[in-house]
Amino acid sequence: MKIGYACKSDEHRIARRQFLGSAAAATGGLIAGGMGLFAQPAIADQLRSDQKRIVVFNMHGGLSQLESWDPKPGTDTGGPFLAIPTSVPGVHISELLPMTAQQMHHMCLARGVNTSEDDHGKGAYMMLTGRRQTPAGNFPQLGAVAAKSLTPSDSSLPGHIVITPGGSGGRGNDSAWLGPKYASVALGNGNPPQNTIRPESIAETSDAARQDFRRKINERFLNRRRTAVTEAFAYSFEQAEQLMRQRDVFDVSKEPAADVERYGTHDFGRHCLLARRLLEQGITFVQLSHSNYDTHNENFNFHIEQMGEFDRSFSCFVADLAVRGMLDSTLIVVLSEFGRTPNINQYYGRDHWSRAWSVCLAGGRIPRGAVYGSTNDNGTEVKDGQVDHGQLFHTYLQAAGVDSTGFFNIDGRDMPIADPAVAAVSELLT
Amino acid sequence: MTIPEGFDPKQAHVVSQWPHDRPLNACRFDPAGRFAFCGSEDAIVERFNLTDGVRTLFNGGHSTWVRAIAYSKDGAQAISAGCDGKITWWESTAAEPKPIRSIDAHKGWIRTLDVSPDGTQLVSGGNDNVVRMWNIADGSLLKEFTGHARHVYNVAFHPNGQMLYSGDLMGTLKQWDVATGKETRSFDATPLHSYNGGQQVDFGGIRAIAVSPDGKWLVAGGLHKATNPLGAVHEPLVLLYDLQDQTEAGLKPVRQLIAEGITGGVVWRIKWLSDGSIMGLSGGSSGGFLLFWKPDAEKDYHRFALPNLARDMDLHPDGLQVATAHYDRHLRITRLAAKVT
Question: How many Å apart are CA B325 and CA B313, to the nearest integer?
Answer without folding.
Answer: 6
